[in-house]
């Protein structure tokens, strides 16, 4: 597709995607230039907006090591996961047997968890309300001014001014939280202190290629903002779709309930989640059929020499988009591709050996693939598995009214691919297993 002097390529074929992103190594690993490196567009200094190069590698590695999920690391934030999901279960039980809108509860719980993982601090409800709303404004602004910013800033000066104000307010709130992160464990008693948070890891980074300097405050704020936005909407959207499928498929819900209740130890422990193949299959099926982002973030060609993709030659800077949702629903790869069938990811199913990173082969790529693949994918999956396990173990999920038809699965495009009609469900407490 050509727009003015801008060329955009859309890739729907999983084999072409594999050749470009995985076999093509770094050739397609850049991001398109926003064309406006002004201070307010700080997002060229976070991971997703950074051009391919040493700075991107440094900050990406830092996040990847922060969220790398060895059982011991996963266990660090287990009490926080339990605390926020306790909150959802409590709220839902408070309205037992009545139709409840699930999205705001999921979203707040996920946001609170990521705020804690980011800054190591528990904020008041009022402060969380403000930051959650602010983060949405930031996303809106980034989306509005991502393409042709020089032009869009002129066309929408008031919106631009509001966006700049939002970013300043964000910096005012985040800067003290980042500074405080350094002191969390300086007090000495490591046992009682919060686990190491993302902001703390940012303070320790030194940019070797730029005279071993620490990150600037703008960079740290931008990276924290990305951490919150990267993990909240994506994971919440996925969980909402999965819960909707479970309402529509009581048989699958019952089988999942049986597995999670049979799990011997507490599901807060990552090791237990690993031992639940059906839970994993349900989450993978959610990611296949309802990938939170129907496209990955735009990629750009980085080689000076023209490179080939799917028989076309593309120039440096060309924007590439990969159609994630199409690949997951491709009927030549998946049987009954439009149906929710977690069994396909169990032994004997066509998805049983699926490689979610796409290194060997791409059958689905909800987290992208290759060098720019989502560095938070294991955390996203852990959160989805943990939330779904908890919600099914303690509650039975039913349609909003006894006589109600199936939950409407129509999609709507927002920052993520949302349910057009947000999930409303009735829950009933299950008998507790000791
Ligand atoms: C279910 C949850 C998630 C989904 C479906 C998801 C999906 C994606 C996708 C499709 C991309 C673009 C990949 C590309 O451009 O090729 C991406 C990038 C990214 N994601 Fe995620 N994500 C999830 C959770 C998270 C979490 C929990 C974090 C961090 C806490 C995170 C941080 C990032 C970052 C920093 C990037 C940019 C990577 C880069 O440009 O090198 N994501 N994610």
From the structure above, extract its key features.
15 helices; 49% helix; membrane; 434 residues; oxidoreductase; binds protoporphyrin IX containing FE; Cytochrome p450; alpha+beta; Cyt_P450; three-stranded antiparallel beta sheet; transmembrane; four-stranded mixed beta sheet
Description of the structure:
There is one protein chain. By secondary structure, the chain is of the alpha+beta class. The protein has one domain: Cytochrome p450 (Orthogonal Bundle), CATH 1.10.630. It contains 15 helices and 13 strands. The protein has a four-stranded mixed sheet. Strands 3-13-10 form a three-stranded antiparallel sheet. The longest helix has 32 residues, at 217-248. The N and C termini lie far apart (59 Å). Bound molecules: protoporphyrin IX containing FE. Protoporphyrin IX containing FE binds at residues 47-48, 60, 63, 67, 226-227, 230-231, 234-235, 238, 292-293, 296-297, 366-368, 372-376, 379-380, 384. This is Cytochrome P450. One of its GO terms (molecular function) is monooxygenase activity. Heme binds at residue 374. It is a single-pass membrane protein.
Can you lay out the helices and strands and say which pair or pack?
Blueprint lengths: L1 E2 L2 E6 L2 H10 L30 H14 L3 H6 L1 H17 L5 E2 L1 H17 L5 H22 L2 H7 L1 H27 L14 H7 L1 E2 L5 E2 L2 H32 L1 H13 L7 H5 L2 H13 L9 E2 L6 E3 L2 E3 L4 E4 L1 H5 L48 H18 E4 L12 E3 L3 E3 L4 E6 L5
Parallel strand pairs: 2-9
Antiparallel strand pairs: 1-2, 3-13, 4-5, 6-9, 7-8, 10-13, 11-12
Helix pairs in contact: 4-5, 4-15, 5-10, 6-8, 8-10, 9-10, 10-13, 10-15, 11-15
């Amino acid at each position: 597709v050509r727009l003015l002097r801008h060329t955009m390529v859309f890739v729907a074929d999983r084999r072409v995607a594999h050749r470009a992103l995985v076999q093509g190594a770094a050739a397609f690993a850049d991001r398109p230039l926003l064309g406006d490196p002004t201070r307010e567009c700080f997002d060229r200094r976070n991971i997703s907006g950074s051009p391919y190069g040493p700075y991107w590698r440094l900050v990406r590695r830092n996040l990847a090591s922060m969220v790398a999920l060895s059982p011991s690391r996963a266990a660090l934030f287990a009490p926080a996961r339990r605390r926020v999901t306790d909150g959802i279960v409590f709220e839902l039980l408070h309205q037992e047997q009545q139709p409840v809108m699930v999205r705001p509860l999921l979203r707040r719980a996920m946001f609170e968890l990521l705020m804690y993982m980011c800054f190591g601090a528990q904020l008041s409800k009022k402060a969380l309300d403000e930051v959650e709303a602010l983060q949405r404004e930031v996303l809106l602004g980034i989306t509005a001014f991502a393409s042709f910013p020089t032009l869009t800033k002129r066309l929408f000066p008031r919106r631009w001014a509001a966006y700049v104000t939002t970013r300043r307010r964000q910096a005012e709130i985040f800067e003290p939280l980042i500074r405080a992160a350094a002191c969390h464990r300086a007090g000495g008693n490591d046992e009682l202190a919060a686990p190491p948070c993302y902001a703390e890891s940012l303070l320790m980074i030194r940019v070797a290629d730029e005279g071993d300097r620490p990150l600037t405050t703008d960079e740290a704020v931008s990276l924290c903002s990305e951490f919150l936005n990267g993990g909240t909407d994506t994971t919440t959207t996925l969980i909402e779709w999965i819960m909707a499928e479970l309402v529509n498929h009581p048989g699958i819900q019952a089988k999942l309930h049986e597995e999670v209740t049979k799990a011997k130890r507490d599901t807060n422990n990552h090791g237990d989640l690993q031992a639940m193949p059906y839970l994993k299959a349900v989450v993978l099926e959610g990611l296949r059929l309802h990938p939170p982002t129907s496209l990955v973030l735009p990629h750009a060609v980085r080689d000076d020499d023209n490179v080939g993709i799917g028989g076309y030659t593309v120039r440096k800077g060309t924007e590439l988009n990969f159609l994630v949702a199409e690949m997951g629903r491709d009927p030549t790869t998946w049987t009954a591709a439009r149906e929710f069938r977690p069994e396909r990811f169990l032994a004997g199913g066509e998805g049983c050996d699926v490689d979610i990173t796409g290194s060997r082969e791409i059958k689905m790529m909800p987290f992208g693939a290759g060098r720019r693949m989502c560095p938070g994918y294991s955390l996203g999956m852990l959160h989805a598995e943990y939330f779904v396990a908890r919600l099914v173990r303690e509650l039975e999920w039913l349609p909003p009214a006894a006589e109600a038809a199936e939950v409407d699965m129509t999609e709507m495009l927002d920052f993520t691919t949302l349910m057009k009609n947000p999930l409303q469900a009735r829950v009933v407490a299950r008998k507790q297993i000791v």
